[in-house]
Structure formats: C-alpha cells, structure tokens
Design goal:
286 residues, single chain, mainly alpha
Length: 286
C-alpha cells in the first residue's frame, strides 16, 4: 500500500505540472525551459555504470528529452486536459513497441486497448480548432515515452538506479541545451511563473519522481505500477479543469473517456510485457 500511494502521488505531481509548464512556456522559450529543467534534475551521484550502462542511460535520457520536447510543444498548442489524456497513450503503445522490437506477443487486451484509445484520440483531435497539431505532437511524445519505458524496464534494473537516473537527466539536458542554443533560445529565466515551474518540474516531477518510481517498483507489482500511472491523465484533466479553466465539452470528454478505457484495458498487457522483458537475460548489460 505505501508503494501504491507513492506512485499515485507521482502521477498527481506529473498532472499538476501540465498547468505550470503551459503557463511557463508562454513566457519563456520552450527548449531553454526544458534544458534548465533537466539541469536542475541532474543532481546526484555517479556510480560505476560501465560503458554499456552509460550508453543505455544516454539513450534513455535522449529519448526522455525528445519526449518532453514533443509533449511541451504540443502543450503550447492544445489544452492541459487533452495533453494529459493523449500522453496516457504511452501505456497502450508500450506493448505494441515491445512486439515490434522484441517479438513479444500482443494480447487481445492490448489490441482492444489500442483500438479504443485510437478512436478516442480521433474524437479528441477534432474537437476544437488548432488542437489537432498539438494532440499529434503529444501523441509523438507518448510513442517516444513508450520506447523509453521498454528500454528502461529491460536495462535499468542491472545498474545503480541513482547513477543511471543522473546520467539519463544529464543526457536530456545536453541534448535540449544543444537545441536551445541552435534555436537562439538562451536567456535568463525571470518571474515566479517560470522559476516555480522549473523548480517543481526539475526537483519533484523529474529527479524525485523517477527515484520514487524506482523505490516503489521494488515493493509492488508491475501491474499495480502501470495501473497507478494510468491516473496521470485523470490528474491532468482535474488540474486542467480547476487551475487552467479547461472546458472541453461533452464530445471532448467522450474522446478522453475512450482513451482512458483503452489505457485501462491495455494495462495488464503492458505490465506483463514489461515483466517478461525484465526477466530475460541481459546479455547487453554484462
């Protein structure tokens, strides 16, 4: 029970940051914001990862940075609630990518979940003008997160969790900093809206959240972990409604409910797929 409470708390933090980030990037350049976020998150210790561990962490961190870039760019163009629900599709997409990469079986639950969530996304994307491009960017982020989850679940348990997380954060920081420099988005943050979002996302939603996830997954099942993470879009919708004034209408919420139904249906398939990946011999990690 304590582990489940911790995971629910992590999803609540992730949910509220959608509102903060949307407000912050309206005032401060997107890639500069993300680079500083991961710079703040990159505090900790470096363990003896070895070349294979460091390489895996860099790949995972690069995917994480790319995912946040797509997600935040989409958040600029669509609503907080839409961003939260479309992001939740990473749970549905995970077993699909595991099938493509590792030839894992795709159960009937995962197939039904993909169908439901895809229909929900189609409904949601056509609800209000200007949201389709944002929803598609967030969907790209969900796909990248799915790939990152598959890699993390297979390789991360073989290495020191704190060291792996640190290298992952620094890799995301380096990649986003390069993009920010190329785009000319280099300036000193100003105002509480930006600094508050940086501190919350950097410390709580990144560094502490990923460490809390590592702690919790040692104490609860993969199924419960995946089910807890499905609450992230629910929190996003709640905070979008209460803090950001989101009013999506009946049609939009039908789309959100379909996405949520797809996530819940696909959860057991996603969890079992990831569990099989963890149990496999990690030849690449030796």
């Amino acid at each position: 029970m304590p582990a489940l409470i911790v995971l629910v708390g992590v999803t609540a933090v992730w949910g509220v940051t959608f509102v903060q980030v949307k407000d912050a990037v309206a005032l401060y350049p997107l890639f500069a914001f993300l680079a500083l976020r991961f710079a703040i998150a990159g505090g900790g210790r470096l363990g003896s990862l070895g070349r294979s561990g460091a390489t895996a962490a860099v790949v995972a961190g690069s995917l994480l940075g790319a995912g946040y870039a797509f997600q935040t760019a989409g958040l600029e163009r669509t609503s907080v609630s839409s961003t939260g629900f479309v992001t939740g599709m990473y749970v549905v997409l995970t077993p699909v990518l595991a099938l493509a990469l590792y030839r894992d079986r795709l159960g009937s639950g995962a197939v039904l979940g993909v169908v439901l969530a895809t229909v929900g996304l189609a409904v949601l994307a056509g609800v209000h003008r200007g949201s389709a491009s944002g929803d598609l960017l967030v969907l790209a982020a969900a796909a990248v997160y799915s790939l990152q989850i598959v890699l993390m679940e297979r390789f991360a348990p073989a290495y020191d969790a704190i060291a792996f997380t640190l290298v992952e954060m620094l890799a995301a920081f380096a990649g986003l900093t390069a993009v920010a420099l190329a785009a000319g988005q280099v300036e000193v943050p100003h105002g509480w809206t930006v600094w508050g979002a940086l501190l919350v996302t950097g410390v709580f939603a990144s560094a502490l959240a990923f460490l809390a996830q590592t702690w919790a997954q040692r104490r609860t099942s993969a199924t419960r972990t995946a089910l807890a993470f499905s609450l992230e879009p629910v929190w996003a919708a709640f905070f979008g409604f209460t803090l950001a004034g989101d009013r999506l209408g009946v049609t939009a919420y039908v789309g959100c409910l379909l996405i949520m139904a797809g996530i819940v249906v696909a959860e057991p398939a996603a969890a079992s797929t990831l569990a099989r990946l963890v149990r496999r011999p990690r030849a690449a990690a030796s």
